[in-house]
């Protein structure tokens, strides 16, 4: 008998227990153990009913993703579930934690399902570029009907136990925490009442009622927008539709064919890389798991602007009190007002209750003095990018804050070591770079200074988790990982337009790759006056900064979305960028002034220049140890800039394109275009010479 699945009898109930930490995934040992344990249960004359229950934190959380792409070892999951469904003794699945993917499919193959009220169920395969491939697309709609099954399967969202009961996915929900006791009691009831074996495959009322309905086409139309660029959500609809058009066994065959199409799609590889990368980033190289973590039970924030306010919301959302300090009362009032408005909007959309709005607002207090930071555990400075001001602030924090308080800067580019030098405790100083809008974007780029202590590094990574962000620890350099690469892309996008491309052509290439918006639409969102101010400051300091057609836009008060005109124009209340002939004209004049004869630029050249310049910079970032692994860069780009997760992040994408192809093109651009940005990274050259990928590092 396998060690991970055991069989024993308690009274009249044969208990099959899965114990395969951390999440009881359906690896080969579990699948074969399930078959063996079922056989024992079938042969146990004293077992009147069987119970499937899991040890540890959760019911089965799905197929073992680590086995994907390797040769499949029998028994396959579909066959295991068939054997459970065909058992002539009734089987009860007792669900705690999360029954996900193959886990829920296994439970659906059982005859009854009971869940703890804290449990959740779902079919999240779509998030991995897949569809439920062990009967989920055929059994779930038999219980819930088409629409709900389509919603669950195409979104991958979980459903809580109470809703699952209402939808007929589970038969009973019990409070408490002892899943085994709950399962045993339910199985005993099944045995005592002589309840029959009840197979979901035989439930036909809902599939008959909705046969040939329009819901599938409606759903496909809705997905065109929601699932732009994705492959598997559409295959999910095809599979669910098969449950309504085909007999069960044929529907299962169709599901398998569609599942294999998804398995073979490159999107599956990208999404699974993203899944593991998101988890790997929390394991920081050189930082032991037992590094002590400081308590962060109160937070101070400097600056009540968009960034400061958004950061404050993250902490209030998880019950941590925040004090925001501003210089002037009206700025403070304005900032607090915007936070309230954001919460009220969430309440209007039904995302939180009015009571939660009040609870969260009660956790956020405003102040005009740093004295109120005396007792806080962490301070995050979120004022605009100016080194002198930041140093002055950190000097003051050093005087006021208690020993052991963490002093963080939300700077997006500046030198953390220089900021830390304004204090007598550089070991407590760290960067915590949030992405705008800070209450929405999931990335937290934590920046270690050369003297930041391990304890502080571990604490800011733990804080990220606590506030439900994905934390990535990176090294200190101008722009860190994300903005350093973005700046290279931005400069290349500008150069392409100077040479003859239009902003909309550049943006389209980027959105076709899967970015939510292009370089120029992003500039409009952020406000193009930001870059202008930086260029002006540098010019005033005597630097030779090349003229830009963007400067002319700012001088015309076309600042971006906030003035309804920037690189694009915008209709009242809309964020949709509309190309503007006035801007095309302005760019044409600019080229004339600069003596540039515009040329036709192909989409392929735009793609290569915008992406390869980032990859080359990413390689330099790895070489310098600013990022520890290529997956850290991938996660920064997926969660900070909306790089399509189905492409796995820029460095994973580069590995798929082929590093030799990229290096050849980078060399060519270095020869033809010149510039430091095209000097091939030594690491890129090394990897190509060794026939290796970023993923091999
Ligand atoms: N296979 C292999 N490993 C898995 C796994 C899976 N299905 N799910 C989670 N893990 C691993 C994680 O990689 C992590 O490993 P680590 O500790 O070495 O980093 C560990 O389990 C714990 O995971 P989390 O850090 O994510 O823990 P949480 O408690 O935050 O979340 C969870 C638990 C909700 C189960 C979350 O891990 C999750 O959503 N897992 C994926 C579930 C899923 O997608 N299931 C469908 C799989 S595909 C399938 O079933 C195909 C079928 O239809 C044929």
List keywords for this structure.
697 residues, 6-stranded mixed sheet, 8-stranded mixed sheet, 29 helices, binds 3-hydroxybutanoyl-coenzyme A
Notes on the structure:
The protein is of the alpha/beta class and 697 residues long. It is 49% helix and 11% strand. The chain contains 29 helices and 17 strands. The chain has an eight-stranded mixed beta sheet, sandwiched between helices. Strands 1-2-3-4-6-9 form a six-stranded mixed beta sheet, sandwiched between helices. A three-stranded mixed beta sheet has the order 5-7-8. It is globular. The relative contact order is 0.06. The model has no long low-confidence stretch (mean pLDDT 95). Bound molecules: 3-hydroxybutanoyl-coenzyme A. The site of 3-hydroxybutanoyl-coenzyme A has 25 residues, from β5 and α3.
Q: What percent of the residues sit in helical stretches (DSSP H or I)?
A: 40-55%
The ligands found in this model are: 3-hydroxybutanoyl-coenzyme A
Would you identify the regions where 5 or more consecutive residues have pLDDT less than 50? none
In total, the number of strands is 17
Overall mean pLDDT stands at 95
**Spatial ordering of strands, largest sheet:** 12-11-10-13-14-15-16-17
Report on the biggest sheet. 8 strands, mixed
The tally of helices reads: 29
State the secondary-structure class: alpha/beta
Query: How much is the radius of gyration in Å?
Result: 28 Å
Quote the distance from N terminus to C terminus.
39 Å
What percent of residues are in strands? Answer: 5-15%
Shape: globular
């Amino acid at each position: 008998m396998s060690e991970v699945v055991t069989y024993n009898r308690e009274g009249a109930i044969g208990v099959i227990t899965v114990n395969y930490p951390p999440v009881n995934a359906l690896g080969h040992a579990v699948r074969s153990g399930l078959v063996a344990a079922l056989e024992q249960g079938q042969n146990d004359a004293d077992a009147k009913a069987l119970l499937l229950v899991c040890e540890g934190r959760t019911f089965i959380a799905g197929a073992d993703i680590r086995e994907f792409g390797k040769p499949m070892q029998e028994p396959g999951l579909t066959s295991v579930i068939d054997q459970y469904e065909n058992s002539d003794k009734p089987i009860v699945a007792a669900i705690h934690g999360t029954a996900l993917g193959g886990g829920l499919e296994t439970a659906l193959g059982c005859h009854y399902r009971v869940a703890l009220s804290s449990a959740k169920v779902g079919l999240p395969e779509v998030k991995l570029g897949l569809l439920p491939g062990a009967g989920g697309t055929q059994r779930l709609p038999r219980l819930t009907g088409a629409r709900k099954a389509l919603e669950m399967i195409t979104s991958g969202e979980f459903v809580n136990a109470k809703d699952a009961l209402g939808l007929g996915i589970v038969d009973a929900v019990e409070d408490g925490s002892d899943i085994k006791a709950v399962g045993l009691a339910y199985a005993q009831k099944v045995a005592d009442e002589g309840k029959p074996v009840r197979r979901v495959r035989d439930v036909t009322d809902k599939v008959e009622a909705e046969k040939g309905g329009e819901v599938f086409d409606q759903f496909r139309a809705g997905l065109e927008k929601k699932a732009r660029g994705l492959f598997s959500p559409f295959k999910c609809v095809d599979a669910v539709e098969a449950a309504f058009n085909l007999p069960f066994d044929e529907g299962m065959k169709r599901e398998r064919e569609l599942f294999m199409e998804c398995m073979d799609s490159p999107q599956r590889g990208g999404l699974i890389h993203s899944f593991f990368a998101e988890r790997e980033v929390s394991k920081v190289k050189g930082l032991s798991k037992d590094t002590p973590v400081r308590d962060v039970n109160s937070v101070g924030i400097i600056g009540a602007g968009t960034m400061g306010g958004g950061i404050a919301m993250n902490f209030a959302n998880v019950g941590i009190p925040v004090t925001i300090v501003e210089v002037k009362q009206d700025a403070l009032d304005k900032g607090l007002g915007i936070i309230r408005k954001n919460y009220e909007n969430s309440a209007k959309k039904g995302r939180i209750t009015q009571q939660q709005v009040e609870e969260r607002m009660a956790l956020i207090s405003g102040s005009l003095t740093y004295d109120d930071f005396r007792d806080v555990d962490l301070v995050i400075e979120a004022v605009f990018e100016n080194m002198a001001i930041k140093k002055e602030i950190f000097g003051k924090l050093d005087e006021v804050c208690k020993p052991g308080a963490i002093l963080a800067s939300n700077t997006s580019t500046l030198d953390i070591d220089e900021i830390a030098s304004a204090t007598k405790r550089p070991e407590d100083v760290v960067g915590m770079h949030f992405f705008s809008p800070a209450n929405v974007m999931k990335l937290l780029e934590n920046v270690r200074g050369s003297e930041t202590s391990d304890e502080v590094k571990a604490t800011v990574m733990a804080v990220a988790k606590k506030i439900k962000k994905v934390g990535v620890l990176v090294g200190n350099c101008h722009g860190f990982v994300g903005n350093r690469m973005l700046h290279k892309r931005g400069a290349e996008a500008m150069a392409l337009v100077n040479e003859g491309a239009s902003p909309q052509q550049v943006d389209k290439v980027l959105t076709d790759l899967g970015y939510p918006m292009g370089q120029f639409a992003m500039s409009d969102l952020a406000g193009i006056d930001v870059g202008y101010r930086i260029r002006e400051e540098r010019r005033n300091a005597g630097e030779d900064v090349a003229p830009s057609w963007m400067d002319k836009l700012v001088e015309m008060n076309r600042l971006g979305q906030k003035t309804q005109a920037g690189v694009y124009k915008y209709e009242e209340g809309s964020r949709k960028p509309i190309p503007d002939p006035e801007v095309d004209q302005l760019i044409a004049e600019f080229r004339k002034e600069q003596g540039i004869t515009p040329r036709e630029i192909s989409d392929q050249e735009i793609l290569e220049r915008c992406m390869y310049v980032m990859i080359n910079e990413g390689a330099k970032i790895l070489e310098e140890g600013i990022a520890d692994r290529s997956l850290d860069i991938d996660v920064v780009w997926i969660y900070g800039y909306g790089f399509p997760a189905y492409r796995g992040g820029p460095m994973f994408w580069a590995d798929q394109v082929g590093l030799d192809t990229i290096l050849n093109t980078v060399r060519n651009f270095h020869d033809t275009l010149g510039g430091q940005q095209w000097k091939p990274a030594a690491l890129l050259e090394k990897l190509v010479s060794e026939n290796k990928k970023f993923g091999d590092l």
